[in-house]
Amino acid sequence: MPAINTTPHTLPVALTIAGSDSSGGAGIQADLKTFQALGVFGMSAITAVTVQNTQKVFAVHEVPSQIVHDQIRCLFDDIPIDAVKIGMVSSVPLIEAIAAALANVSRPPVVLDPVMVSKSGYALLNADARQALTAKLFPLAEVVTPNILEAETLIGSKISTEEEMRVAARKILSLGARKVVVKGGHLSGAPATDILFDGATFQALTAPRIATTNTHGTGCTFSSAIAAHLALGFPFFEAVQKAKTYVTGAIAHALSIGQGHGPTHHFFDLYARAGLGVTR
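User: That's the sequence. What structure does it adopt?
Assistant: Structure tokens below.
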């Protein structure tokens, strides 16, 4: 009988603070799958429970802000955390609770995905919470990852070119974050180009545009992949490049589940290496 290996193996640890997606393609579920796929142990503080499927979001029920605060603090009190990802935070009390919880800990890199509206048009950030988001959470963020529509809301003007994405990146950094990724997936054109900016250097990151409607959870997956790679010790530009490669692969192997926008395949690489085919 072979000896049992009792040597402890420590994985980097990442915490996601976000809403739960009952269809499993976005939110907390996407974040935890992404962390595990990339070799990072995932933990969660749930901000809301949603009623949703691949077609639309029907309702959102917020978790009490004190419970959200205490989920975060109890984890930091017990476990070294290497990165934090913040996703859906829909109200001022939730934003204030998260800011208070993170303000008084030894804070690792924080990746903030400013989720505002679902693909089906459901408002996931209350109108009165937008100012609180920038005032309270941007200063705590190492990286913010708005898509074009979110960036337009943050800066108050339209974005239709890569140069305008660069202008937006500068303006978004002035709101308090240290680094920004303006995601270009909503712009027309064959390649999908993101603009990265660390306050000194711009970098354009381009990937093929994949013809699929199964893109549910891509924003959550991308931001959590950035957080995972920061937890693994990669610097900003390399972390985002690796996250882009990962999410592009997940989209290329997306799953046709449901009657709307199906999810990306978070474990596509692991399945391929294990010789497991995907039939959906």
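The first strand starts at residue 13 and ends at 20.
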